[in-house]
Structure formats: C-alpha cells, structure tokens
Design brief:
Oligomer: single chain
Helix content: 25-40%
Length: about 325
C-alpha cells in the first residue's frame, strides 16, 4: 500500500515543484492549493505526511497554523512540516506546539523534507494527484450533467429527469457531496450552483419534450437576488426550455427559514411557471414548516426511508405520513 503525502501551497509552481521532487515508487503525492480542499483530503483520505505553507491566502494570515489544529483532529498520526519564507522563533515555537515536527525556511532542500518523511514502507507505483481549485472547476467548463429518469410506478411512464452534477476530471471532488462541501467552505455555493444550473439546462435541452427537468438547488441560492432568476430565464430561453418544464428541488443542506428574500424569489419563480420540490424529505434540515408558503408540487422521500420501506414498519409509517401530507 502506498504512503500518501499531502502538499499544500497556494503557489502552484511551488506546490507542483515539491510534488514532482517527492515522487517515487510506493508514494502517492496529493497537491492542494488552498486550505479548504486540504481539509477535505485529510477528512476523507488517510495521509502519512503533510507539507504545508504557513500562509495560504496572503501575507497577513497564518492558515497553516489553523490547518495544524485540523490535522490534530483528523490525522493526528501524520508527520507534518510547515514551510515559510520567514520563519521566526515565535512561529517555530507555535508550530511545534500545535503538532508540527519541523518548520522549514524557504528555500529549502528536498532532502530536508525526505528526512522528515523518513519513509520507505510504501509499495506500488508512484502517483500524483492534483486537486483542482474551485476557480478551475467553475472556470474551465469541467462541470457536466447526467440525467436519471423519474418514473411513475403505476404506469411505468417517464415523467421527468433528475439532473446529477459532476466534474469530468479525476478527483475525489467528483463526489457531489464533497464538491458542494468544498464550495460551502469557500463561501461560493451560489457560484457552483449557478454553474451546475447552466450545465443542466444546456444538457437537458434534448429532453425537454419528454418530461420535466428536475434540478437540485441549495436554499441559500434563492437569496442571491436576481442572479438565480436571470440565470434561469436567460439559459432556459437560450436552450428553448419552457419555464413550466423546470422543477427546482430545494435540497436539505440548509434550512429554508423565513428569509423574505428567499420566499419572494420562490413566489416570483413560481409565478413564471417554475415548480418546486422538497428534496430528501425526512433528512437533515426539514422544509416542511414552509410547505404552505412554498406549495411544492413534489415531495421526494429520502432514500434512507424510501428504500425497502415496505419491509420496515417504521419506515412504512413515515412514507405513508409523507404521502398523506402530499395529498
């Protein structure tokens, strides 16, 4: 099994250079260019060692120190070294206190890092994994949409298609849950949601005559003022999709709340013909308190409760309750 070494630096040329120099058999090198993606890596993948810059977004912040705290919670056994262009005694003391085993002054020798890694137990081929930044994901057009049919059980008729967002490059961020968690930590959920929406409308144009297009939407996006309404109307018109064919599924990732801007946006979109659905009813944040105001056309039962519910008395009661509410 290979040893995983994580490199974190916001300067791509520095991070990529270190990664290339550390490549060898038995080692997987993962490169991140911001703290948020690096946090997700250590929460998801076991890492043997971490080499991180102290400053990741500018000269006045020390995210590397905060990252040490994160590593202490999620990868306490990892060997960690911080690097900086200006190592002070105070920085070194604080870094060691938070769990680093070394602090290196830039420029440094790769041999210094190899001494810190002190590895040699890994096996397998050398592999290099670059984690794309959110700017790359949004700006390079790598977001793609697949569709799965929504079928009426009674008639086996296809009544619509649910859009599933993903990215075309190999990355652990290809998992939608991690991709949107990354965007949330970057404070850019709206940017990612609108990118996915545009992709779904472009890709779904060919299906517009066969059924409605269901698109997931984080509730926070509706509070973005005109952005979501403009994106919907402009892109739908561009691809010849009537607004009455669009269903926005409000996801359970955040509470719908009583935000006037959100509720007004829902009213406005509904008046234009767009329908709404509550996604994954029964999980995480519940939108049911807002059911009278939103008046969703669909309630989608969470897979957790819906799968195999007929064999579980408790799940059967929950599904029947939701069905009764929908009627």
């Amino acid at each position: 099994m290979s040893e995983t070494v994580l490199i974190v630096d916001d300067q791509a040329e520095v991070a990529d250079g270190i990664a290339a120099a550390l490549m060898r058999a038995g080692r997987q090198v993962i490169v991140c260019y911001d703290a948020e993606s690096a946090q997700l890596v250590v929460e998801t993948i076991p890492v043997f060692a971490v080499i991180s810059d102290v400053r990741l977004t500018g000269p006045f912040r020390f995210e590397g120190l905060d990252f040490l705290d994160h590593l202490g919670r999620h990868a306490p056994e990892a060997r960690v070294a911080l690097v900086s262009g200006m190592v002070t005694p105070e920085l070194e003391v604080e870094s060691l206190r938070r769990g680093a085993i070394a602090v290196l002054q830039k420029p440094f020798e790769i041999a210094d890092i190899e001494n810190i890694l002190a590895s040699g137990n890994g096996s397998g081929d050398a592999t290099l994994v670059r984690i794309p930044t959110l700017d790359e994901i949004i700006g390079r057009g790598v977001v793609r949409t697949r569709f799965q049919p929504i079928v009426r059980v009674a008639t086996e008729e296809v009544m619509g298609f649910e859009s599933l967002a993903g990215i075309t490059i190999e990355s652990f961020l290809a998992r939608p849950d991690l991709l949107f968690l990354y965007a949330e930590r970057k404070g850019r959920v709206i940017d990612l949601e609108l990118t996915c929406m545009v992709s779904a409308l472009r890709s779904g144009a060919a299906l517009r005559e066969q059924g409605r297009l269901f698109m997931n939407l984080h509730p926070a996006v509706l509070g973005s003022g005109e952005r979501v309404r403009e994106a919907l109307t402009i892109e739908a018109a561009r691809w010849g999709i009537p607004l009455r064919c669009i269903v926005l599924e409000l996801t359970e990732q955040a509470a719908l709340g009583k935000d006037d801007a959100v509720l007004e946006a829902i009213d406005d979109l509904r008046e234009q013909g767009i329908r709404f659905a509550f996604d994954d009813v029964g999980m995480a944040y519940s939108h049911l308190p807002a059911i009278e105001r939103v008046r969703p056309s669909y309630l989608k039962v969470s897979q957790h409760f819906g799968s195999g519910f007929e064999a579980d008395p408790t799940r059967t009661k929950l599904v029947r309750s939701i069905l009764s509410l929908a009627r």
